[in-house]
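Researcher: Please translate sequence to structure tokens.
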Amino acid sequence: MITSGIECILISVKDMEESLAFYRTWVGMKVVADQNLNPEKIQKLWNLSKGTKARAVFLKNEEQSTLLELIEFQPHSGRVIRAGAKSWDYGISFETDNLSGLMEKFKKENVSILSGPVEMDSGPSGKIKAITAEGPSRIIVEFFQIL
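Model: Translation complete:
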């Protein structure tokens, strides 16, 4: 039985420093832990080749209780864990209080906006305006503002 909410969302990244810069700059997250994982245990857990190492960085911001865990494997295998996975098969979503301002900053910094803005109904959030952007490691990142 699950005894609490979601502890963390894990994203495998190709470039840790690029990913950290993105989530710090655009989501306002701060590093709460940064660690090199035990190679033997991570190889067993993820069914990785002998010699694979991993670094995990946990981030959060003041508004969230759920952590974002970025994990970078070395050497990079170049393969996905799920056969046939595409970058648009998954993503992460963040609420903002100024979507227009964020879009202006994205344009100035050449962050790729993939779609939107689109107004729509979104379950528990109600009516929202949203965009999707390409984050580091081609992760789809949605930013939305409740209307």
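Researcher: Any highlights?
Model: The mean pLDDT is 83.
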